[in-house]
Design brief:
alpha+beta, Beta-galactosidase, Chain A, domain 5, 2 domains, nine-stranded antiparallel beta sheet, elongated
């Protein structure tokens, strides 16, 4: 079955209609994902037939928010600027600001980072920064990871898990006081980015016992005033923020403030409606965020888990759409897990560690299988035996959804058990920490991914500030099960063919890649095909390189005939790489094609770069097209 991806989205719609719908995936008490061959304990389906074909999810077509008489009028009045207390209690004075309940969120942070905070340091992606040396104001220049940690107050999750609460209060109050001193009122710059602000307000409300414990008598009234001011600011600013994770974070914080602050029902109704609409604009029909970024996928799950805990704290039933959305978000994330439990390196992210992923999934209580064949997420997952292949068979994200966009179309990763054989470099999103800032742009390039590159050009233009330009706009995908001849007869294999037009405008060629994985996981066959866009192709030749970045610790040795290589994984498994057939077709001479071993790097789950190697097939090919076949085979 062929699937056509393009970059034209269908805008999500919001309507206030009757509440119907159900859970999309199975839940279980253990909090662990199901194995791919295990059936869920329960099943409840969402009728997706009513969803129009497109990238964005019209969430209210799946499950609508509850609407009681008068709620639409309250929401409308609050949107126009009528104060919440005037709608909730029109004949009373405004109630003093306080947090109404203690939230017990199942989200757990990084204990090592929490211990570092208690020792006087921020720990962001493996880099320590003394608290006293951090500048908290809007003009400070911090590394991306540290900037997000400081201004979003995500460090409160880490601190809360590091020790008993009473041992953490002093640290939490110290950092909060420093931040408030540097940012006394809303302004511009990183502290008042809508995403950072929404995450910060949510963190203050969820971790109120840490920051409002009262050991510092002067801090409590200051922070309560800041909470109210921040909530009011988000009421106004979030609606004008573009679609994406920032808008979701803003509306989630507004909703949480409506739940946990006095006379907040109008704000809650206002936030809920906008949050459900913004979630539909963030997520594709199959549950993958349109940024196609695993970190953004995790952040969306984290935000919803914190928010649902706020509903539970005040004993208020959350809209079913929020539960369904969180369940939709988990299977695509699992599709990017390798056998070691950590994520692949996609869209600028490092290989996020297995512990972080497992902890997040456990906090949701959702048990489900990975999404192997997404309609819009774009990452195809192939599995045979202990071998897992992840294949980027979707177009790059659109500009408004891009976070740290990478030109990775038709790249793949391969792991065998706990060892990664073929990887992408990753780490562009955290450049400025252990990863030098000067190479961040290069890590977003096509050459930093395991795919074909023409003339050292990116398949999609890589712009500054994480943005992407023109390039791959359309990706066609076909997936099927095929029979392949083997020594023991016919063996089944999974075959995925995808093509993109990223090189069509510049070189008049489209790139098609076919990956075929045997059902036992012992062979991955690949074909990279260049086809002319029109019958009247361009003349001459163009340089090409097919790169296979090797995992950390993989020992590679080129064979004597220069047409293959042996690859030994850290756990002792031997794979053989071979070129097959007439590389390049009739128009290319064998002497024009060579296989070599070059330096590379890979960024691990702690944000540390490691020197690695890459296999490179390179040479010249005709502007009329070419075909390059290769095989990865597990020996023994």
């Amino acid at each position: 079955m062929a699937t056509l991806f393009n970059k034209e989205p269908v805008e999500a719609e919001f309507e206030e209609i009757a509440d119907e719908g159900g859970s999309a995936f199975a839940l279980g008490p253990e909090g662990e994902p199901l194995r791919e061959d295990e059936e869920p304990q329960t099943a409840a389906s969402v009728d997706a037939a009513s969803i129009e074909a497109g990238r964005a999810l019209a969430l209210t077509d799946v499950i609508a928010p509850r609407t009681r008489p008068g709620e639409a009028l309250i929401r409308f009045a609050y949107r126009l600027g009528v104060p919440g207390h005037a709608l909730a209690a029109p004949f009373r004075r405004p109630a003093p600001v306080r947090v109404l309940a203690t939230v017990q969120s199942p989200i757990t942070g990084d204990r090592a980072a929490g211990i570092a905070l208690r020792a006087g340091h921020f720990l962001a992606h493996g880099v320590k920064q003394p608290i006293h040396s951090v500048e908290f104001d809007a003009v400070a220049r911090l590394s991306p990871g540290l900037e997000r940690m400081v201004h979003s107050f995500s460090w409160l999750d880490d601190l809360a898990v590091s020790a008993p609460r009473e041992d953490c209060i002093a640290v939490a109050e110290r950092i909060t006081s420093l931040w408030l001193d540097a940012n006394p009122s809303p302004a511009k710059g990183p502290p008042w980015d809508v995403e950072h602000t929404g995450l910060r307000l949510l963190a203050w409300l969820v971790h109120a016992p840490l920051v409002l414990a009262g050991q510092d008598g002067a801090l409590k009234p200051r922070l309560l005033a800041a909470i109210e001011e921040t909530a009011n600011w988000l009421d106004r600013k979030t609606v004008r923020h573009g679609a994406g994770l920032g808008q979701v974070a803003g509306w989630a914080a507004v909703t949480a403030a409506g739940l946990l602050l006095p006379e907040g029902r109008p704000r809650r109704l206002y936030g809920e409606a906008a949050l459900i609409k913004s979630l539909g604009e963030l997520v594709a029909e199959d549950g993958g965020v349109l940024a196609r970024c695993p970190q953004a996928q995790m952040e969306a799950i984290r935000i919803l888990t914190h928010l649902l805990a706020c509903y539970e704290a005040v004993e208020t039933q959350a809209p079913d759409a929020l539960w369904v959305m969180r369940e939709l978000l988990v299977p695509p994330l699992l599709a990017l897990r390798h056998e070691d439990g950590a994520l692949g390196s996609w869209q600028g992210q490092m290989a996020i560690s297995a512990d972080r992923v497992a902890s997040l999934i456990a906090s949701t209580g959702i048990r489900t299988r990975p999404l192997n064949e997404p309609q819009h997420w774009g990452y195809q997952r192939l599995r045979g035996g202990s071998t897992v292949v992840q294949f980027d068979a979707g177009p790059p994200p659109r500009a408004r959804h891009t976070r740290v966009g990478c030109a990775s179309t038709l790249a793949f990763e391969l792991s065998d058990g706990p060892s990664r054989l073929i990887v992408n470099c990753g780490g562009a999103a955290i450049a400025g920490g252990h990863v030098p800032a000067r190479i961040g742009q290069g890590l977003r390039a096509t050459a930093a991914h395991s795919t074909l590159v023409l003339d050292d050009a990116n398949s999609t233009a890589v712009l500054l500030h994480g943005k992407l330009g023109r390039g791959a706009e359309t990706v066609e995908v076909e997936r099927r099960v095929v029979k392949r001849a083997s020594g023991n007869g016919n063996a089944e294999a999974i075959r995925v063919e995808a093509s993109h037009d990223g090189y069509a405008a510049r070189f008049g060629l489209t790139h098609s890649r076919i990956l075929t994985l045997r059902s036992d996981g012992t062979e991955l066959g690949g074909e990279d095909i260049l086809l002319p866009v029109s019958r009247k192709g361009k003349t001459g030749k163009v340089g090409f390189a097919i790169r296979f970045h090797l995992g950390r610790g993989v020992e590679a040795r080129i064979t004597q005939d220069k047409r293959g290589a042996s690859l030994l994984t850290p756990d002792g498994k031997l794979w053989q790489f071979r070129l097959r057939g007439n590389m390049g077709g009739e128009a290319a001479r064998e002497s024009e094609i060579k296989l070599s071993l070059e330096d590379s790097l890979w960024v691990d789950g702690e944000g540390r770069p490691h020197a690695t190697e890459q296999l490179v097939i390179e040479g010249l090919t005709s502007r009329g097209g070419g075909q390059f076949s290769w095989l990865l085979k597990k020996m023994g």
